[in-house]
Amino acid sequence: MTNEQLRSEILRLKEKNGVTIVAHFYQRDEVFEMADITGDSLELAKRAVDDANPYLIFCGVGFMGQSVKLLSPAKRVFMPRIACCAMARMIDTSYYTESIAAMEKRGIQKENILPVTYINSSAEVKAEVAKMGGLVCTSANAKIIIENALKAGKKIFFLPDRCLGQNIAIDMGLKSAVIGQDEKLEEADIICYDGFCSVHQLFTPEDVDFYREKYPDIKVIVHPECDPKVCAKADFVGSTSQIIKYIATLDPEQKAVVGTEFNLVNRLREKNTYVLSATKPECTTMNETTLEHLHAILKSIDEGTFFNEIHVDDETIKWGSEALRRMMALS
Ligand code: SF4
Predict the structure, then answer these.
(1) What is the CATH number of the domain that holds 188?
(2) Best residue for ligand 1 mutational test, from 84, 261, 289 (most atoms within 8 Å of Cβ)
(3) Phi and psi at residue 299, in whole multiples of 5°?
(4) Separation of 53 CA from ligand 1 center, angstroms?
(5) Is the C-beta atom of 139 inside 6 A of ligand 1?
(6) What's the CA-to-centroid distance between 262 and ligand 1, angstroms?
(7) Whose CA is nearest to atom 2 of ligand 1?
């Protein structure tokens, strides 16, 4: 089938079967254009809950489909590809337990630790976090969530993204330490797990210097999953939604260089926008989903053969949704 035929078949099957298509900002253009709902991970989960269709196809990575299932367990959620976020894969429940044990070994009692997990984590990890009284955050609300969490008078265990935890600590004038990297965990306000995003790790302070030298008036805009040394040199640090809003405020002639995923940067605006890396910063797992995959999953719903459905057990739904709701109550 040509792409044109695929697009018309996707629209026909979607209408016929009552399916909502949801796509994250980092999806390929041809997939992104087919979506009814687009946004960042939290926006997508929230808006998907309000959607009335019985079936939902999530074009993104695994933890995002799981987040919809946690908030809306009755909905049947499918993914064209069960693609994984590399960062979310860096921590599972056993690494989580080991991290708590590592802190206890350093004299930090479990009851004095409050875990905060970035939304880029599995449903199972979110559930473990909730069981310890913790909650979820996103890159857009991490500061508000941590400000509130600190009121408990405990040390924050921030997972899995080291950079986001460190950037928030710098922004708030707090001390941070990374498990396995820093000796003095007990002196830190925020103890970070040593996970990272392989895409945002591509950007370096030298990339920022290169663009500043080439275009002295350029605006440097980066995502907080970038290394703190990169964020320190930026004019603006924000989540994907915040980056989109910031770019919209710029004069069309203002040059801007952006440090985040390629597909998003590419559709930000028509001119004067550059990617902050000589290497294409592409999230390979996000880019796995194609029009063919989207068509195949719709066909399986139409034929009742169903594959790639997201299933989460009841106990994980109970606790994982609690971690998400605690965040939503604060942001
Ligand atoms: Fe995960 Fe990074 Fe890809 Fe986002 S860009 S889905 S954090 S690997």
Answers:
(1) 3.40.50
(2) 261
(3) -65, -40
(4) 28
(5) no
(6) 11
(7) 197
Closest CA to 311 of 89, 91, 77: 77
Q: Are residue 23 and residue 63 in the same domain, yes or no?
A: yes
In-domain check, residue 316: no
Phi/psi zone of residue 309: left (φ > 0), alpha (ψ -120 to 50 degrees), beta? beta
Same domain, 176 and 267: no
Tens of pLDDT, residue by residue over 249-296, are 999 999 999 999 999 999 998 899 999 998 999 999 999 999 999 999
Q: Do 265 and 166 belong to one domain?
A: no
Q: Write the pLDDT tens digit of every residue in 84-125.
A: 999 999 999 999 999 999 999 999 999 999 999 999 999 999
Question: How many domains is the chain built from?
Answer: 3
What is the distance in A from the centroid of ligand 1 to the CA of 66?
15
Tokens of 286: 């996000």
Q: Which atom of ligand 1 lies at the shortest distance from residue 261's CA?
A: 5
Nearest CA to ligand 1 atom 6: 85
Is any ligand 1 atom within 6 A of the Cβ of residue 286? Answer: yes
Residues 91 and 94: their CA atoms lie apart, in Å, by: 8
Q: Which domain holds residue 149?
A: 88-197
Task: Tell whether pTM > 0.85.
Answer: yes
Find the 47 Cα to ligand 1 centroid distance in Å.
Answer: 21
188 and 117 fall within a common domain: yes
Is residue 283 within 6 Å of ligand 1 at its C-beta? yes
Of the three residues 153, 181, 197, the one that is the final residue of a domain is 197
Exposed/middle/buried for residue 173 (C-beta within 10 Å: 0-12, 13-18, 19+): exposed
Helices 62-71 + 314-330 axis angle, to 10 = 90
Of 167, 197, 227, which marks where a domain is finished? 197
